[in-house]
Amino acid sequence: RKMEGVNVSTHPEVPGEPTQTSTALLEKATAAIQGFGPLNKIHQHLCAFHFYGHDMTRQVEAHHFCGHQNEEFRQCLIYDRPDDDGRLIGLEYIVTEELFLTLPDEEKRLWHSHEYEVKSGVLFLPGVPGPIQRQDLDKVAKTYGKVIHFWQVDRGDELPLGIPQVMMALTRDGQLYDNLAKNVEERYSVSFAAERENRAYIKGPAHGVHPMANGGGKGLKTVLREVDCKTVDTAARVFV
């Protein structure tokens, strides 16, 4: 179904005083001494779009900085923009179809497929030539991802407020806002339509997209609920 209206991510200013010279110097000193092993494994930057699991009208541009743990598992830090001022808004775990199929059915609902994102052209590696991109995206199309966003930048929050939310990804034509797509295409000099044609040969999961993935076709939202008379709050999944 074609989504009506517009909802483009914003880039709110984080409250606080500018970084002091003493802080910057301290960071340079610690950077020269310490190692950053997990960050050094990041090997690629992907741009994609996410929407809230309970509200497809809230769509967010998401920049993934990813590294492989092994051939079947990679993990990504997600920022709202790729420059030095980007906000860390979430993370994504990506697994092969083989690992996904080992998950309990209820867990599968929290993961989304990547086949449509890849084949439609809307998932891309900024600045990387098409033929090189497609070598990796041919693998990504067969995977599943689990995304949690902590910072609701689309509503202009200055800080990461509220409960972390499960996000979902596009699965068919007509879901992504046209203006959001065009804005990204112009900024990165890419054509989703042209890349769709170039990726026509790419195949998705060997067993097809699992029916329990992508929320099982239903919305899902993370909420707080009272679990006993002692007024103890805990995170719980509520499927809408």
Task: Summarize the structure in words.
The protein has helices spanning 21-33, 37-40, 97-100, 105-108, 115-120, 130-140, 178-188, 192-198, and strands at residues 44-52, 55-70, 73-79, 88-95, 112-113, 144-149, 165-169, 220-226, 233-239. The protein is α+β, with helices and mostly antiparallel strands and 240 residues long. The strands form 2 sheets. A 6-stranded antiparallel beta barrel has the order 1-2-3-4-6-7. A two-stranded antiparallel sheet has the order 8-9. A hairpin with a 2-residue loop joins strand 2 and strand 3 (73-79). It is globular. The two termini are 18 Å apart. Residues 1-8 and 234-240 have low confidence and may be disordered.
Keywords summarizing the entry:
Oil body-associated protein 1A, 240 residues, two-stranded antiparallel ribbon, OBAP-like, alpha+beta
Which stretches are low in confidence, meaning pLDDT under 50 for 5 or more residues running? 1-8, 234-240
The total strand number stands at 9
The number of helical segments is: 8
**What would the principal axes of the Cα set say about the shape?**
globular
User: What is the string of SSEs from the N terminus onward?
Assistant: HHEEEEHHEHHEEHHEE
How would you write the strand order of the largest sheet?
1-2-3-4-6-7
Give the proportion of residues in helices: 25-40%
What is the strand content?
A: 25-35%
Cα-based radius of gyration, to the nearest Å: 19 Å
Sheet with the most strands? 6 strands, antiparallel, barrel
Give the distance, in angstroms, between the N- and C-terminal Cα atoms: 18 Å
Oligomer: single chain
Name the structural class.
Answer: alpha+beta
Overall mean pLDDT stands at 88
